Each structure stands twice: as structure tokens, then as C-alpha cells.
Amino acid sequence: MAPAGGALLIQTPVQLYRYLLRCCRQLPTTVMQHHYKHAIRQGYKSHSDEDDPERIQMIIHRAVADAQWILDKYTKKK
Hints:
The protein is mostly helical and 78 residues long. Helices cover 67% and strands 0% of the residues. The chain has helices at residues 13-24, 30-46, 53-75. The longest helix has 23 residues, at 53-75.
């Protein structure tokens, strides 16, 4: 499945952070939303000193793919 709208326009870590927080709103329960928001904040803090543009792009692509996988996992109808 293709990334959600706007995912292809992400170029900076701040844009990624905002995109991932918006994705959390689509999760079915508030417990899941809080869990993943916390994980996003921790990931953002742990990579905040990254300055290699190629590495930043790798992180962005991986995070978008992971977010899409999580959304697909929890929002698919059984």
C-alpha cells in the first residue's frame, strides 16, 4: 500500500514528527495512541543530533514505512 497523503512530501525531521503524530490519531484506541506517541517522541529525541542528510532520509523512509505497517495492522477489518 502506498504511504498516506503527505508522506511523500516529508523532507525534514520536524515534518516527519508531525506526520507520525497525525498518524497516531488513526489508531483505534487511546491506549495505542499514547503508546505510539511516546515511542515517536523518544525516537525523535534519540535522533535529534543526526546531521548526515543521507542518514536522515533513511530514517524518514523507514519511519513512514513502519507507520504504514502499524496503521495497516490495527485498522484492517478482521
